[in-house]
Design brief:
By secondary structure, this protein is mainly α. It contains 32 helices and eight strands. The strands form three sheets. It has a four-stranded mixed sheet. A two-stranded antiparallel ribbon has the order 1-8. Strands 2-7 form a two-stranded antiparallel ribbon. 34% of the residues are buried.
Length: 721
C-alpha cells in the first residue's frame, strides 16, 4: 500500500469512531413516545400528564389567521389626497366647452359637432336649448359656481362615509393629518349643493342637461389612494404569525389532575396532527433518526478534530482515542438509562468519572474539553431537552477535570470530590431557584450530586490502573510510584553503584527545577533521571563516580575496549528497563540523555595511541538517538553540567556560571538538541536555573568550633601536617 493509502486508512479508522459512538449513544436513550395523546375538552380535568415527546409547532387555523389579518388590516386608515387644482381644471374645462359652443353658433355650425369634440353628446332638444345665448350664459354661470364649490374638498362618485370608516389620513402639500371620515364631502353632498345653484328659468331639458354637465365636468378634489392603502394593509396581513407556540421536547402540556385550558387543547390537537403525519410518512421518521445521528457525530467528530490539531499524540494512538470515545459513550449510556428510569435525577449522570479519569491519564485541559463534549452530547438528546442536563453535566465534568489537572498524591481525589459536590450544589441552587422549586428539592438534588461525585471518583481510581495498562500512558501517580527509593532497581543502584545514584539524585534535582521553569513535566524529568544510568549496574567499577580512590580498571584496557564498556551501559540500561517493565517515557532517558555525543576522554586517548588510519571514531560515540522531548533534552544538559562541575576546585558563582554556559553552548553547537522541542529562550532559562540551583548547592559553610563537634580550617591544616 502506498504512503497516501496508509494515511487514508489511518485517518479513516479514527474518523469511524465518531459515527460508531454516535450510534451507541443514540441507542442508549429512550425514543420519544409515539402514541398520540387522547383528545381533550377545555374545562375538564386531565387524568394523566401529557408530555411532549418531540419538538413541534402549534399553528393557527387558516380561518382564524385570516380573521386576525383582516382585523389588523382594518387598523390602517384610508389615505385621501387633497388636490385643489382639480377644481380649477374643472372650471377651465367648462369655459373652453362653452367658448366652443359660442364659436359654433357665431359660425352657424352645428352645436352637436362642437359638443362632441369636447366629449359631450347633445340631443336635438338639448342643442336647441343651448342655441339660445341667454340659456348658454345661465348654464355656464351655474356650472362655474357649482364646480367652484368642490375646492374645499369633494370625494369622487361611489365613495361613501361607510367606505372610509371613522377616520382617514388627509394628505396635502403642507403635510398630512387625521380627520374624521364624516367630515369629508361626498359626491352626493356636491349634488345637493349644486342643485340649489341650477340655472334660473331653465326648462326641464335644461335642468337635465345641467345635471349631465355636472357629471361630465366634475373633478374630485379628494382622491382616495386606494392602492397605497391596500399595500399598507397587505403588509399587516402578512405580518400575522401563523404560529401560536413552539413546544419543546419534554415540555409538560398539561399535568395530571389539572384543568385543561384552551391553550392546552390547542397544543394537544397540534401534537396529534404532527404524530399522525409522521406515522403516515416513514421517510420523515428515517430522516429524523439520521438527523439525530448526524448531530451526535458532529459533536464527537469535532472533539476528534481538536485532538488532531492540539493533541496529536492522542490522535495518533488508537488506544488513547478509543479510551476517550469509550468514556464518553459509557457515561452517555448511563444517562440514557437514567432518562428511561429516573428522568428527574439528571444530577446522577456520572460526568465526573471521565473528568477525573482522563485528567489523571492525560491532563486537565483535554479532560475539560472531553467533559464539554460530553455535556453537549447528552444535552442534545431529545430525552434530555427541557431539562438542566447540559448545566449539570458541564459543571460536574469540567469541575472534575480541572480539580485533577495536576496530581501529586492520591488523597487529592478527596479535594476533587469536594469541588464537584460544591459545583453540583451551586447548579442545584441556581436551577432550583429558576424553577421556583422548594428548598427540600434543591437540597435533595445537591445530595444526589455529592453521592455522584463520590461514586464517580471511586470508580475512576478503580479503573485508572486498567486504563494506564491499556493506553500505555504513564500518569503522575505512576511516576510517583516509580520515584520511590525502595523500588528494586533504585535500591540496587543505591547499594551497588552509590556514586551513580548520588549523581542521578543531584541530576534529578537540576532537571526537575529546570523543567518546571520552562513548563515541561518536572516530575517526569526527576524520575527519568533516577533511572537514566541504571545500565552502570552491570559494571559499576568502570565508572569514575563509583571508583572512589581505587585504581581505575580502564588502566588495563585499550581505549577501544574502554569506549565499548562505557558505550555498553546504554544497552545494559535498556535491558534492565525492559526486565523491570519501566514505561517507555522513562526508558527514553537512558539513550537520549547522551544523544550521539562523543566519549571524549577515551577518544582523545585513542587518537594519541591508535594510528589515524585504523581509528574508528564512531566507536567512541553514544548510539543515540538525540533527545526527542524537552525532558530528555534538559537531562542531556544536566548530565554534563553536574558531572563536569565536580572537577572545579573552588566552585564560586562566577566559575559555576561560566562553566554552565560553556557546557550548554558546546552541546547546542554540536547539534545535540536539534531534534528536541526547545527554543533558544528556553535553553537560556535552563541555564539560569542550573546556575541558581548549583550556586545554592556550592555555598560557603560556617565553621563550627571543634569542641562542639565541628570542623575548622585549622583542624584541616593540622590533619594535612
Amino acid at each position: 500500500m502506498s504512503a497516501s493509502g496508509r494515511r487514508f486508512v489511518f485517518h479513516l479508522q479514527r474518523a469511524l469512531l465518531a459515527p460508531l459512538a454516535a450510534v451507541l449513544v443514540w441507542a442508549a436513550f429512550p425514543r420519544p413516545e409515539q402514541t398520540a395523546p387522547e383528545q381533550m375538552e377545555a374545562g375538564r380535568v386531565a387524568e394523566q400528564d401529557v408530555i411532549a415527546p418531540m419538538r413541534f409547532v402549534v399553528r393557527k387555523p387558516e380561518a382564524e389567521r385570516a380573521r386576525e389579518a383582516e382585523a389588523l388590516a382594518r387598523t390602517v386608515k384610508p389615505i385621501i389626497r387633497y388636490r385643489p387644482a382639480e377644481s380649477t381644471e374643472a372650471g377651465r374645462a367648462v369655459a373652453q366647452f362653452f367658448a366652443a359652443l359660442d364659436s359654433a353658433t357665431a359660425a352657424g355650425a352645428s352645436l352637436e359637432e362642437a359638443a362632441r369634440v369636447h366629449g359631450v353628446t347633445l340631443t336635438a332638444a338639448e342643442a336647441a336649448e343651448l342655441a339660445r345665448p341667454s340659456a348658454r350664459r345661465a348654464m355656464r354661470s351655474a356650472l362655474a359656481v357649482a364646480l367652484s364649490r368642490t375646492a374645499p374638498g369633494t370625494l369622487a362618485p361611489g365613495i361613501s362615509e361607510a367606505d372610509l370608516g371613522r377616520q382617514v389620513v388627509l394628505r396635502s402639500e403642507v403635510g398630512e393629518r387625521v380627520v374624521p371620515g364624516e367630515s369629508l364631502a361626498t359626491f352626493s353632498d356636491f349634488l345637493e349643493v349644486a342643485d340649489a345653484l341650477r340655472p334660473a328659468g331653465a326648462s326641464q331639458a335644461g335642468e337635465r342637461l345641467y345635471v349631465r354637465f355636472l357629471g361630465a365636468f366634475f373633478r374630485p378634489t379628494l382622491v382616495y389612494e386606494r392602492e397605497e392603502t391596500e399595500r399598507h394593509r397587505d403588509v399587516l396581513r402578512r405580518s400575522v404569525d401563523s404560529v401560536v407556540a413552539v413546544v419543546l421536547a419534554g415540555e409538560r402540556i398539561v399535568g395530571a389532575h389539572e384543568v385543561v385550558s384552551e391553550e392546552a387543547v390547542r397544543k394537544i390537537d397540534a401534537l396529534r396532527g404532527v404524530m399522525a403525519r409522521r406515522a403516515a410518512g416513514t421517510i420523515r421518521g428515517a430522516l429524523g433518526v439520521l438527523g439525530a445521528l448526524g448531530t451526535d457525530t458532529l459533536i464527537l467528530g469535532l472533539f476528534g478534530v481538536i485532538c488532531f490539531f492540539y493533541r496529536p499524540d492522542v490522535y495518533r494512538s488508537a488506544r488513547q482515542l478509543g479510551v476517550f470515545a469509550g468514556a464518553l459513550v459509557l457515561v452517555a449510556v448511563v444517562a440514557g438509562l437514567l432518562a428511561a428510569h429516573a428522568p428527574g435525577r439528571i444530577e446522577l449522570i456520572p460526568v465526573a468519572l471521565p473528568g477525573i479519569l482522563l485528567a489523571v491519564l492525560f491532563d486537565g485541559r483535554i479532560a475539560a474539553v472531553a467533559a464539554m463534549t460530553l455535556a453537549a452530547l447528552i444535552g442534545a438528546q431529545p430525552a434530555m431537552r427541557g431539562t438542566d442536563a447540559l448545566v449539570f453535566c458541564f459543571v460536574g465534568g469540567v469541575g472534575a477535570a480541572l480539580s485533577m489537572r495536576r496530581i501529586r498524591h492520591r488523597t487529592q481525589v478527596f479535594a476533587a470530590i469536594g469541588i464537584v459536590t460544591a459545583l453540583y450544589a451551586g447548579a442545584a441552587a441556581v436551577s432550583g431557584a429558576a424553577a421556583e422549586e422548594p428548598i427540600r428539592a434543591i437540597g435533595a438534588s445537591a445530595l444526589y450530586g455529592g453521592l455522584n461525585a463520590l461514586g464517580s471518583a471511586a470508580l475512576a481510581m478503580l479503573l485508572l490502573p486498567l486504563a494506564e495498562s491499556y493506553t500505555h500512558v504513564t500518569t503522575d501517580l505512576r511516576l510517583l510510584e516509580l520515584g520511590d527509593p525502595n523500588r528494586p532497581l533504585l535500591r540496587r543502584l543505591a547499594t551497588e553503584a552509590p556514586g551513580t545514584y548520588a549523581h542521578s539524585v543531584a541530576m534529578a534535582n537540576l532537571c526537575e527545577a529546570a523543567c518546571n521553569v520552562i513548563g515541561a513535566n518536572g516530575l517526569l524529568a526527576r524520575v527519568g533521571c533516577y533511572y537514566h544510568d541504571v545500565g552502570k549496574l552491570r559494571r559499576p567499577q568502570y565508572f569514575a563516580e563509583n571508583q572512589g580512590h581505587a585504581r581505575s580498571p580502564h588502566e588495563q584496557l585499550t581505549p577501544e575496549q574502554s569506549g565499548a564498556v562505557i558505550r555498553r551501559h546504554v544497552e545494559d540500561g535498556l535491558a534492565l528497563a525492559e526486565e523491570h517493565h519501566l514505561p517507555e517515557v522513562i526508558r527514553r532517558f537512558i539513550p537520549e540523555h547522551h544523544g550521539t555525543s562523543p566519549i571524549s576522554y577515551f577518544l582523545e586517548r585513542a587518537r594519541e595511541e591508535t594510528p589515524a588510519a585504523s581509528l574508528r571514531e564512531e566507536d567512541f560515540h553514544y548510539p543515540g538517538p538525540l533527545p526527542q522531548s524537552a525532558e530528555t533534552a534538559v537531562a542531556l544538559l544536566a548530565d554534563s553540567v553536574e558531572a563536569a562541575l565536580r572537577v572545579l576546585d573552588d566552585p564560586t558563582p562566577e566559575k559555576i556560571e561560566d562553566a554552565i554556559q560553556h557546557l550548554v553552548r558546546t552541546r547546542v553547537g554540536a547539534g545535540q538538541l536539534r531534534e528536541a522541542p526547545l527554543t533558544l529562550r528556553q535553553v537560556e532559562m535552563v541555564e539560569r536555573e542550573f546556575v541558581r540551583v548549583l550556586t545554592s548547592m556550592h555555598h560557603n559553610r560556617v565553621e563550627y568550633p571543634e569542641d562542639a563537634g565541628g570542623i575548622t580550617a585549622d583542624w584541616e591544616a593540622s590533619r594535612a601536617d
